[in-house]
Amino acid sequence: MNIYSLKIAWILGLLFILSGCNLATNSDSPVKARSFKLDDLAKSDVDMVLETQLNYSLEYLENLMEKLYKRNPKELRKGGWKSRKAAMQRVFGPGRANSFPGLRGKRSVDAMRLAFDENYYGDRVLALIEGIRGMLLDSYNGKRELFLMDELDPQKIYNTARNIEITVWKLNNDRNQEGQLYLISNETQGAVQNLSFERLFGKMIAVQDSTARFVAETTNRRIKNVIQSIASAVFIPI
Predict the structure, then answer these.
(1) Domain span at 192
(2) pTM of the predicted protein model
(3) Would residue 26 count as lying in a domain?
């Protein structure tokens, strides 16, 4: 019996055992267990760790979207949204849009480029956040859930971290013909500095880098370092 057959037999056996078990956790427990789903039987511990890492990145990204709209309310109006909540629901909520006409059919890193395009007059916050979201999912082969037979490419995940670094530099440095930043993020002038954007992006970079290394070690694959001058770097296709 090969490894694949053994995995299938193990899954079927465990499913039979659990079918008669009460899997509810103690509601008074201070530590809440991850809700069990039948699909979890087809996942390894590695799959669940990787899913958790992706969810962390998406949570940080959602926080960034809210903060960017707060600092750039004109982008909210350009997108025709009634509120920040409405805009965020269309990207991260259960009523997520299948497409965004304002992005000209672009997604992933192509949508991210729109946020820093002089000739783009749409919602730059949407372009950047939806672009990063698409990029993150592309590095996971377009999946929010992973199973035993799925395999990720650590190079793709590593490259997303480099693209996020480039995004941070562009937010702080790319300007239009009038010398204005395309999107306002960190506040470095004045007595009180606001570097909360930097911290959230830093967390996303750390998650992606640690995930890339984890995948490389568990699959015995190597990551090729990408060396670019950050000031002239371009987004890496995923």
Answers:
(1) 45-219
(2) 0.80
(3) no
Q: Which residues of 208-230 are buried (b: 16+ CB within 10 A; e: fewer)?
A: bbebbebbbeeeeeebeeeeeee
User: Six-digit token pair at 211?
Assistant: 């995930």
**pLDDT confidence tier of residue 210, bands split at 50, 70 and 90:** very high
**Each residue's pLDDT tens digit, 42-58:** 567 888 889 999 999 99
Tens-place pLDDT, residues 185-202: 987 665 556 788 999 999
DSSP state of 82: S
How far is the C-alpha of 15 from the C-alpha of 219, rounded, in Å? 27
Residue 207 lies in a domain: yes
Q: Let me know if residue 87 belongs to a domain.
A: yes
Count of domains in the chain?
A: 1
Query: Is there a domain that residue 64 lies in?
Result: yes
Number of Cβ within 10 Å of residue 71's Cβ equals: 15
Tokens of residue 25, six digits = 């956790």
User: pLDDT tens for residues 178-189?
Assistant: 999 999 998 766
CB neighbours of 181 closer than 8 A, spacing ≥ 6?
171, 172, 174, 175
